[in-house]
Design goal:
The chain is of the alpha/beta class. It has two domains: about 200 residues, Rossmann fold (3-Layer(aba) Sandwich), CATH 3.40.50.720; about 35 residues, no CATH class. Helices cover about 50% and strands about 15% of the residues. The chain has a seven-stranded parallel sheet, sandwiched between helices. The longest helix has 29 residues. It binds NADP nicotinamide-adenine-dinucleotide phosphate. The site of NADP nicotinamide-adenine-dinucleotide phosphate has 30 residues, from helix 1, helix 4 and helix 6.
Length: about 260
C-alpha cells in the first residue's frame, strides 16, 4: 500500500530537478502523475522512469503562465485519470540581477511563471477538487522569500506564494482541500548549477562553500524536497493547512 494509492497528481516543471523527483516519489507511493512542463523531452525521460516502476503517467506540454494551456492540461488529466487530487506548483525560473540592472522583462518573466503560473494552475485544479471535496495544493516557495541579494524578482515571487498559500488555505479548507508550501534552501539542481556557471563559478565549488554554511553540512537533493511534498500530499497531512515548511538543512545564520 502506497500513501498515494488511487490519487492523481499534476506536477508542473516535472521535466527535471525537484519536479522530476516529486513525480517519481509520488509514483513510488502509488499515484498516477501528469508530468507538466514546457520541456517535453525532459518529461518523456521522467515518464520512462515512472513506467519502469509500473506507474501510469501522462506527459503534458504546457507553459504554466498560459491559461489556455493550463486549462487544457488539467482537463486532459481529468479525462485520462478521472480525477485530480494533488497539484504541485513547482515550475520555476530565475532571472537574477541587482536591482539597478534588472530589466522589466526579467521582472515580468519571473512573476509570470511563479505567481501567475501558480494562480492559473490552482484555479483550474480547484474546480475538480471542490467537486470531489478533496485536494492537496503544494507550492514551491524558497528561503529567498526572506530576502536574497540579486533576486528582487524571485524573492518577491516566492514571498508572494506564501501569501497565496495562506489565502487558499482559508478559502479552500472548507472543501477538504489543504494548501501548503515548501521553502527549500540550496538544492542541487540545474537551476543552481546553471546559476553558478552564469557567474563564472564552478558548481562543485559553490556546493562545497554552501555546505559549510548549512547546519547539516550538505546541500539538499531534489529528493529531500520531494519527500516533504509527498507527506503534504498524503491523507496523513490533512490537518496541516496554510503552512510554509522550510526544507533547508537548518536555519540560515543571522546576518
Ligand atoms: P529546474 O531544475 O530549473 O527545473 C524547473 C523546471 O520548470 C524545468 O523543467 C523548466 O523547464 C520548467 N519550467 C520553467 N518555466 C516553465 C513554465 N513557464 N511552464 C512550465 N514549466 C516551466 O528548477 P528546480 O531547481 O528543480 O526548482 C523547482 C522549483 O523549486 C522552482 O519553483 C524553484 O524556484 C524552487 N526552488 C528551487 C531551489 C533550488 O535550490 N534548486 C530552492 C528553492 C526553491 P525548462 O528547462 O524548459 O526551463
Amino acid at each position: 500500500m502506497g500513501r498515494l494509492d488511487g490519487r492523481v497528481a499534476f506536477v508542473t516543471g516535472a521535466g527535471r530537478g525537484i519536479g522530476a523527483a516529486t513525480a517519481l516519489r509520488m509514483a513510488e507511493e502509488g499515484a498516477r502523475v501528469a508530468l507538466v512542463d514546457i520541456d517535453v523531452e525532459g518529461c518523456q525521460q521522467v515518464a520512462q522512469e515512472l513506467e519502469r516502476l509500473g506507474a501510469q503517467c501522462l506527459v503534458l506540454p504546457c507553459n504554466v503562465s498560459n491559461n489556455t494551456m493550463v486549462e487544457e492540461a488539467v482537463e486532459k488529466t481529468v479525462s485520462q485519470f478521472g480525477r485530480l487530487d494533488i497539484l504541485v506548483n513547482n515550475a520555476g525560473i530565475i532571472r537574477d540581477n541587482l536591482l539597478f540592472k534588472m530589466s522589466e522583462e526579467d521582472w515580468d518573466a519571473v512573476m509570470a511563471v511563479h505567481l501567475k503560473g501558480a494562480f492559473l494552475c490552482s484555479r483550474a485544479a480547484q474546480k475538480h477538487m471542490v467537486q470531489q471535496r478533496y485536494g492537496r495544493i503544494i507550492s514551491l516557495s524558497s528561503t529567498s522569500a526572506l530576502g536574497n541579494r540579486g533576486q528582487a524578482n524571485y524573492s518577491t515571487a516566492k514571498a508572494g506564494l506564501q501569501g497565496f498559500t495562506r489565502t487558499l488555505a482559508i478559502e479552500l479548507g472548507p472543501f477538504g482541500i489543504t494548501t501548503n508550501a515548501v521553502a527549500p534552501g540550496f538544492i542541487d539542481t540545474e537551476m543552481t548549477r546553471s546559476s553558478a556557471r552564469r557567474q563564472g563559478l564552478d558548481p562543485e565549488e559553490v556546493i562545497a562553500e554552501a555546505s559549510k554554511r548549512i547546519p547539516v553540512r550538505r546541500v539538499g537533493q531534489p529528493r529531500d524536497v520531494a519527500n516533504v511534498i509527498c507527506f503534504l500530499a498524503s491523507e496523513e497531512a490533512g490537518f496541516v493547512n496554510g503552512q510554509i515548511i522550510y526544507v533547508s538543512g537548518g536555519p540560515a545564520p543571522r546576518s
